[in-house]
Amino acid sequence: MSKFALNDWVLLTSQKGKKWLVRVENAPYSSHLGGIHLADVIGKEEGDWLLTSKGAKLMLFKPSLEDYIFGMKRRTQIIYPKDLSAMIFYGDIHPGCEVIETGIGSGALTLALLRAMCGKGKLTSIEKRAEFAEQARENISLFFGARPRNHQIVVADIETACLSCQVDRIFVDLPEPWRAVGNLSSMLRMGGLLVSLSPNVGQIQLTQRQLLANGFGDIVHFELLRRDWKVDRLRARPFDRMVAHTGFITVAKRVSADRGEGVENDSETEEDAQQELEALGS
Ligand SMILES: C[S@@+](CC[C@H](N)C(=O)[O-])C[C@H]1O[C@@H](n2cnc3c(N)ncnc32)[C@H](O)[C@@H]1O
């Protein structure tokens, strides 16, 4: 088991589950549970304890990806772990696949994708705002200790960006995903998956129309609710609060443009979809 060293991340965890993610350095650190000297963490192992000046016991852990995502600097809304885990699984991410992601935001989804890709394949993140790209770049480097070699960030507007590639998977976390679907469809190989996260019903309705109009099929939309339970000697019941609605996940597959005339064919034409977009004032 590796011991904590100078500059490592350490997750200080109280007995009641309160957490602080800090770097191990030669400096004091204090919370409402009292002070510690961070250098005292050096040489200890995961699962060891440290006593604060007020006598509280803090457990020492290396942060998981979930811990890191909640502790890192965030300049945008991030995708929550309950949705990240589902997007990675239903998006069928595996080592070796070629992936596009847009926009990068603070880099939470990027970290989850890179972790699942295990350094193989290639991830291209397309982000419109340079300052968000920079923050995400920093978060990614701090997590992995260096820039992953299979990752590149392109600062561009995905609605007009011109990338000549045919990737296996596309991940979308944009305020107006439907506006990017047409451009993105040309970058996804036949049978490839597009996974999108949107908080609002209107967003997934407009996205559905654009997916149908741009050669996508087998489209599903779903949401996930997480309810934690309080379990002790006397009780076992749900907590009053829960991480309920965060967003809808859409998964679609790229299909051949010729959809035939089967009885189940409910696709709309590009013209139908455009008229509806205009009617909605967007
Ligand atoms: C909610 S954030 C993404 C958060 C990210 N998935 C994460 O987990 O940290 C949405 C991002 O999309 C970017 N964005 C919005 N419109 C865009 C466009 N047309 N092209 C590229 N990026 C865009 C925004 O600048 C923002 O960084």
Give a description of the structure.
- The structure is a single chain.
- This protein is α/β, with parallel strands linked by helices and 282 residues long.
- The chain has two domains: 9-63, Roll (Vcp-like ATPase, Chain A, domain 2); 67-279, 3-Layer(aba) Sandwich (Rossmann fold).
- Helices cover 26% and strands 28% of the residues.
- The chain is built from seven helices and 15 strands.
- A seven-stranded mixed beta sheet has the order 9-8-7-10-11-15-12, sandwiched between helices. The protein has a four-stranded antiparallel beta sheet with strand order 2-1-6-5, with helices on one face.
- The longest helix has 15 residues, at 130-144.
- The relative contact order is 0.10.
- The mean pLDDT is 92.
- The structure holds S-adenosylmethionine (SAM).
- Residues 76-79, 102-103, 105-109, 126-129, 132, 157-159, 173-175 line the site of S-adenosylmethionine.
